[in-house]
Amino acid sequence: MNNSFGLRLPHNPELERVVLGLLVIFPEFIATVLEILQPRDFYSEKHKRVYSKLLEMLWGAKTIDLVLLSNELIHDDLVTPAFLGSLLDGVPKSSISNLDAYNRELKTLSLARNVLISCQKAIEEPLNYEESFLALQSCLEKYFDFKNKKASSEGLIEKAVGCH
Q: What's the pTM value of the predicted model, to 2 decimals?
């Protein structure tokens, strides 16, 4: 997706796909990933819906696998069984050791998108002096929040599962 400045918003659909594929293969890591990623952190609407459904299944104490996930999404016109199957294509199980790095990268991309969108709104909207100041302040706060969250998100999964 491009913004009104013609810039491509930062995202990585392949990385999103791999993370979701790993979570279908290893659903025991969903709660750990949830410490870093929320559905809004996924760029693709399909990926947001899949992750949201995985979270619902986790909270509902339902068994999670590809067949049951597909059944849960049976009435979703956007997320088809074929799409769900494609999440597992080429996802090596050994990638689970990189899940922390993948999650941090997706979070960084999400935070960067939020900063860009906030700044774009601040620039595009015709505002009076006070509103302009508040919009700029909000943009700067999001930028520094982005910098702080990026720095503080490093190593959260390793700490949660006791890996060092």
A: 0.77
